[in-house]
Specification:
Chain A: One of its GO terms (cellular component) is cytoplasm. The complex is a heterodimer of chains A (173) and B (493). In chain A, 50% of the residues lie in helices and 8% in strands. With 173 residues, chain A is mostly helical. With 493 residues, chain B is of the alpha+beta class. Classes of the chains: A mainly alpha (173), B alpha+beta (493). The A-B interface holds A 101-105, 108-110, 138, 141-143, 145-146, 149-150, 162-164, 166, 172 and B 147-150, 154-155, 185, 188-190, 192-193, 196-197. The complex binds glutathione (GSH).
Chain lengths: 173, 493
Amino acid sequence: MALRELSSLEKFVGLKRQKKISTQGERKVPVLQNNNGSSLIGLVTISSHLVSEAKKTELLGESVEQRAVVQQWLEYRLTRLDNCSQDEVNIILTELNEYLVDKVYLAGNSITLADALMYYGIHHIISELAVQQKEKYLNVTRWFDHIQHYPGVRHHLPPVIVLRNRVYQSNQH
Amino acid sequence: MAAGTLYTYPENWRAFKAQIAAQYSGARLKVASSPPAFTFGQTNRSPAFLSNFPLGKVPAYQGDDGFCLFESNAIAHYLSNDALRGSTPQARAQVLQWVSFADSEIIPPASAWVFPTLGIMQFNKQATEQAKEEVKRVLAVLNQHLNTCTFLVGERVSLADITVVCSLLWLYKQVLEPAFRQPYPNVNRWFVTCINQPQFKAVLGEVKLCEKMAQFDAKKFAENQPKKETPLKKEKAGKEAGKQQPQQQQEKKEKEKKKEEKKPAPPAEEMDECEAALASEPKTKDPFAHLPKSSFVLDEFKRKYSNEDTLTVAIPHFWENFDREGYSIWYSEYRFPEELTMTFMSCNLITGMFQRLDKLRKNAFASVILFGMNNSSSISGIWVFRGQDLAFTLSEDWQIDYESYSWRKLDVDSDECKTMVKEYFAWEGEFKHVGKPFSQGKIFKKACATEDAHAKVLNFFGSSELLPENKKVVYQRRASRSACAPGGATSPV
Ligand SMILES: N[C@@H](CCC(=O)N[C@@H](CS)C(=O)NCC(=O)O)C(=O)O
């Protein structure tokens, strides 16, 4: 899972040559093997490294504030989203939905690594939501739809159908 | 990729649409928004402008290839790329849908509500309240749409977003205070995201959202109404009496004329909302303000030059009074003489430059001469500028032509300078350094545009008496309410 995600990310940031990435241990932590023999461990570390190497550092945030918020969501992804229980799913969706009321992107006014990694990490949850649920978490759905349509992001993941016309109007308020 | 010039007055939200589109598409767009390149109310009423743009309205676009367009939406469309226009037939139609929506649903109530707060339209409680309701309705429609959509059409910024954002700009800046906009979170999110995209920011700068709803600015309105009394009275009388008897009208006119004659300097015409908006902008500062007063009165010399003999009166007067600290004398030569073909075109080159430098007239005098004949000519001239530097560098707007010329400051005491001043001012002599015969001369001196402008407006409307009312008709159509609103709405004036 992390491997496919990192390979999609490589394409998104425009890196041509694929890196040597494998996983280690029971929790399948990704490891990047550098040419000089050194290695990097962990999803966030490796993806930040890929972004820098592709010279797309704007994806890490352009202002001090945006960079901090990007880090916040990368941490959220690892500590809250990954391996969360079914109960936690609803809490996460509620939190995100609230957060995205007044935002198009997770950090600042442009797409960042936070959007990409949160999108990869939450895809399996969104794709299993019923239409009614998607309407309930309207802001998450809208954000998700925007990111999955963002040029170059989706790659290994199937598109999730999002209805633009609401079916369950009663959920609106 | 399109490249050209956009004529507009500064900070015109209609022009912003085209400017932002150009930011996205990479179209090379020069903006001519201040003198000498463009003076609102003058340039757009000149015959040259009207022959390209018959309405005389701005924004107006002229491509480097000569292609001309008016109507801001058409200009923005032209300067867009395919991504902005929509990539499928459906998307293109949706873009057009939102553009039309902006014009017919947003602009009328937005103007009716915002203009009085800018002091450029009389306040009318009923009209404002009605406008507020219409704005609410429009915001609700947008809010509903933006529930599930990030941008108005598709998943990226399009001309729809650009147009609707620009149409909402004044509302968000002036009157949509937090409590008023709070019920429309989706619109707020979308609006803030858009204005923070680098391409919007490059044109709009930092947009400060309204904190407290602006109210009618009576003071500014009064200031903006040079002939406040007269038209208001007229309007009232007209309403009360229904149709006025022609005779009464005649009398009234007579009276008003007298009244006007008493006033020292009656303004040429009543301002419309655009001019008023302009007037309420901070004035551009005088680029010569930093110079100490000079004893040399340029205007006096110009009068002598115009009315009396050049060799025996004007030039002696010039040298007697010239202030070498406050002024400098320059020789300039057109750098690309090989490009000069027909003499009439070369003359247009000179007069065109003079026009663009209109604002400099108070602080400069020049005689520029075309030498030679078709396909073998040169242009050179003598310029007298306020200050010691080339005045062109003082203002960006003056730099359009000056790079096409070489400039050399003359030593005021030199024989060369004395000779050149004499020959160029008098349009006669050897012109040794040129080597071509004198063909035509042009003098840069008097600001004639102001007088002309009034005359032209009078022509256009038939008589000055008719002018204010005619303008008002335009005003109402443009600003009050959508044409299909149920009748009975009060006019904003
Ligand atoms: N529908 C036109 C409106 C243009 C317009 O009304 N321009 C005004 C400035 S706000 C103008 O140039 N008025 C000059 C005049 O009427 O003489 C557009 O969007 O371009």
